[in-house]
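RETRY 2/3 - previous attempt timed out on the joint model. Re-submitting the same 715-residue input unchanged.
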Amino acid sequence: MRFLVPLLTTLLPVAYALAVAAYARAYAREGGVSDRLGPVALRVAVLLHIFYLSVRGVLEGHLPLASVYDFLSATGLSMAIVYLYIESREGIRTTGVFVLPFIFAIQIVSSAYGNQVTPEPVPLRPFWFELHTLTAVLGYSAFAVSAIYGVLFLLLYRDIKANRFSFFFRRMPPLEALGQMNIRAAGGGLALLTLAIILGVGWVQRSGTGTLTDPKVWLTLFVWCIFAACVLGYHRLGWRGPRAIYVSLAGFTTLLLSRIAVDLFFHSFHSFR
Amino acid sequence: MSTNLAEASLDFLCVGLNHETSPLEIRDALVMNEEEVERAIQALRGRGGAEEAIVLSTCNRTEIYARGASVADLPLFVNDLLREIKGMDLGARGHRLYAYRDPASVRHLFRVACGLNSQVLGEPQIVGQVKDALTLAARAGGSGPVTERLLDAALRCAKRARTETSIGRGPISSVYAAVSLASKVLGSLSQKRALLVGSGEMAGLSMCHLMDSGVSQFTIAARNRERAEALARRAGSAVVRVVTLEALPVVLPGADIVVSATSAPGFVLHEPAVRGAMKIRKNRPLLLIDLAVPRDIDPAAARLPNVFLHDLDALAAIVAQSLEQRRAEVPGVERIVDEEVIRFMRWYRSLLLKPTVTAFRSHFERIAEEELERHRTRFRPEDQPAVESLTRSIVRKLLHIPTTRLNRAGEDGSTGIRRIDAVRDLFGIEREEGADEDRDPR
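RETRY 2/3 succeeded.
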């Protein structure tokens, strides 16, 4: 089964590239009937990705999340799953062309630099820890998708306000739908991050490994607070339009910067090296 | 015309005029009501000798389609007919009717149905008008197997053009552009509330388009209460409230879409009023459409967050863009028209009697041969000639009466065409010949 790993590592970026091409074609061909190809290509890529991670999991005996490249690959898959969920829920396919290139880029980096099964044995990790990692990755991916929708919202908002009715204007879903997609993805990410935090705190207390004063922990809590404010503002305070979007984008930017800072400048007990 | 279609000529003619050949006053004067259409069809069938006839009369065109007319000069006949029915002599006024024959007339009808021949490129109303023309022709006894098939094909062609290209996409009027913008900003309009400022024609048109898009709650703020109430009565099942213009700041916070079209000399809606409304509505998006000249809404309101203000210039830009986009789709639609013309002509040629009879007989003979071959080993060699003879004899006897009746189809006019068509359809002759592989599955 080991021979499958390099093969799938090479195939995955190709599969995502095909999905990107299919979505780009559907986006460009206004009124065409070929817009079903993209979702099919993406589903195939996602199944291939799940198969790849399963093979890695079986070979390594744990979730393949040992390196930063593994983390990237899992993030790419999670983003694809989150995107597919939102696409099927909203019935909007024209935004795929803006989400998928990120997934493709993430996967190509992961395939290029992290194409080996972890050579050294990893200490046995409990189920709760694996679940903590999985929910955190899914949550971050949902925030990433939310951020892409946020940027699309702001671009469309600006175009409509300025009476610029470009091709982008024609191909985008309604502004309100983009806002909802942004907030739904952020809400989903918040729920998953909450679960990840609970599982992480539980694991730290039971195993005695690490500390809750770790910079990654409190930076994550800070990110959680920003997204909680965003979701609360939308649902309870009636935040609509750019304000809610800016808050969600601030949350995602903080998340990105905090991850970079933790990995580069702080000494954290669970940073990827 | 005999249905013994010795040649594949349709003997089909289209004579008419449209916005390209005649000014509005002529087109207006020639619009026929239902009774006049029926009279025209009966005249074409009676004096004109046409086997089938259809009249398509709209505000932009009056066209007559006839199959098998016996008159030598159909355009002249149509000219006389229009003089008789509408009292207008086109010849005397120097306006020439256009005429198309056979495939050119089929192509013309398909182009008309696709909106390629419309004043507003790709406009959708023509599809309904073509359907109405067929219904009227059926009522007046003008339709027949060929015209029914032809109009069906025209409607299919129009449907393909709309689904396979963008010929029907994008708004083509300012009011429709305003409604499209509302959908672009607010998504589904079914739960949204609209405020119409003014009660004139533009306000009425906006109400119609908004209702078509799902808006069911309206407030009309107008100076002329009587006219506003008359407009409210046109709203059908929608909930409509009428208020005075002075109540505008009070009703503004409750609206998601504001369409203003008054003839007031200055602004009717000022920025502070919009700002106040946005506070009350907790900054929920508000779409302001200003259809008035001079403008009704203070442009400063556009600077407020979540306020989308669009005036006639902006809407005109959307309309121009849509039309440009539609023009770019014309080659694609022409390709669909070409395909559908070929398909229709192929169907028509399939009605030729002789090949149908030959194909009909071959169909049964081939089945007999195949069955004989399949069961050959079950009979002794010495019995085989007798079995073959018996089988062929049964087939011959079974085919005798249908073949005789089919041969008579050539003398039975429209009934004959239907019979030939039915035989080909029942026994799948087209598929066997491979001549009409893309035939309508019905």
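Chain B touches chain A through 28 residues (CB under 8 Å). Closing ticket.
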